[in-house]
Sequence to fold (113 residues):
Amino acid sequence: MGYLTYDGQTAEIQMDDRTLAHLQIVIISKLRRQESFAFSWKEPVAKGDGRSTIWIFPTVSLRFKFEGSRPPAVNEAWIDVLKRSINSNGGLQIVPEPIGSAAAPGSATATRP
Fold:
């Protein structure tokens, strides 16, 4: 499990490394263009099972912390879905990885943005 930490400790969001790697790609791509956006996620049952939203802008501190040492393979179809989400009026939302479109083991890794 990895973590996305927003503005120091204001929000710490836990998710699996694969999801975090894909979010990292689309978030950094957006911030490189100096664009702000909303990011929403579902809280785990232990935290009340609700939803949270933060406003991400280029000058805020973000930290992507991965538990595993190897970057996962990038699924370009998932990146495309996340890009559509981040550019929508509702902002970025974590969506499931498209079925049947996972990158093959050993293919490109999540070293880009």
